[in-house]
Write a structure and sequence with these properties.
This protein is 32% helix and 23% strand. By secondary structure, the protein is an alpha/beta fold. It has a six-stranded mixed beta sheet. A five-stranded parallel beta sheet has the order 2-1-5-6-7, sandwiched between helices. A two-stranded antiparallel ribbon has the order 3-4.
């Protein structure tokens, strides 16, 4: 199994390497791939040093799977080139997510849709993945009418530049504008803007939550509104989710449904102060859910608090799990 990791020198690329090792993914030939400015650098995989190669060389070596985490523009340019030589591309960027011809996949939710013909597979947005992991079994059992989502997202979701900004600000240093990931300081702050603003005054991140959730759940009728906030936390993304279901429920039923959902861990015991937090989700591959309670202001209303490591299940882990599914089901 020849595997290429494209964007290997980035924040998510490094975590993809870690997850491939931890999952003991069968790799007969490993290809670390990055942009021209990173070609020649060294990366470590399974205790060995590898030299980073460029796109053209990787394509010539025809990997069976290429896991991309190199940004939307890079993916749009190069993913089709890999696909042309028979490589299956699993892409972490937003480039292909809303393409009607491409599958947007969370293995536990909709991997059954994949076929041998799928050569470019989209990995959903990090905040969407943890949300849909919890919503999918609820939608199946009760139907979802409306969602109100508020996210509290780690600065690590913006990448290495944001991590550098946070670390410098924490140490009391100021940075020139060209070295900042955010317009404002992130240390000891909360910024109500994730990604750029769109014409409807929502941010791109907020509309990803709307559009990707509908696509993954296969239901365009769900009413969704979202507010995404960037916070000075490194362990993962948190989400306050208000759900209006179509059918009545009991809290015990909801907990049982979620406890029996693969990849979801219920942490919900207020008496012992048990609830999900990014502090404890860091480096974990599961999605954690708690603060499960009725919304007493509407019929069939439910409130949840969902937390996951955005670099793990929100990106690298989900991508490697897609690769595992392809391998296990002989789709590659």
């Amino acid at each position: 199994m020849k595997i290429a990791v494209v964007g290997v020198t980035g924040l998510v690329g490094g975590v993809i390497n870690e997850v491939l090792e931890e999952f003991d993914f069968p790799v007969s030939e490993y290809m670390p791939v990055a942009s021209e400015r990173s070609v020649g650098k060294e990366v470590t995989f399974r205790g060995r040093q590898y030299t980073v190669i460029g796109m053209e060389e990787a394509i010539a070596r025809k990997p069976q799977i290429a896991i991309f985490s190199a940004g939307g523009n890079t993916s749009q340019e190069w993913a089709p080139r890999f696909a042309e030589v028979g490589t299956v591309v699993i892409d972490n960027s937003s480039a292909w997510r809303m393409d009607p011809a491409k599958k947007l996949v969370i293995p536990e939710v909709n991997a059954h849709l994949l076929t041998k013909e799928d050569k470019i597979i989209a990995n959903p947005n990090c905040s969407t993945i943890q949300l849909a992991m919890v919503l999918a079994p609820l939608h199946k059992n009760y139907g979802i009418k409306r969602l109100v989502i508020s996210t509290y997202q780690s600065f690590t979701g913006t990448g290495a530049k944001a991590v550098h900004q946070y670390e410098m600000e924490r140490e009391g240093h100021s940075l020139p504008d060209d070295q900042r990931a955010y317009h404002y300081r992130i240390f000891e702050n909360a910024i109500p803007q994730c990604d750029i603003f769109l014409e409807n005054l929502y941010t791109k991140e907020e509309m990803k939550l709307v559009n990707e959730t509908r696509k993954i759940l296969g239901d365009q009728s769900i009413k969704i509104t979202a507010t995404a906030v960037r916070i000075p936390v490194s362990g993962g993304h948190s989400e306050s989710v208000n759900i209006e279901l179509k059918m009545p429920f009991t809290l015990d039923e909801i907990r049982n449904v979620l406890k029996n959902t693969s990849g979801v861990v219920v942490q919900d015991n207020p008496e012992t102060f048990e609830y999900p937090m990014p502090l404890y989700s860091k480096n974990k591959n599961d999605v954690f859910v708690g603060r499960i309670r009725h919304d007493e202001s509407i019929e069939n209303g439910l409130n949840l608090w969902i937390v996951a490591d955005n670099l793990r299940k929100g990106a690298a882990t989900n991508a490697v799990q897609i690769a595992q599914y392809l391998l296990n089901n002989k789709l590659v």
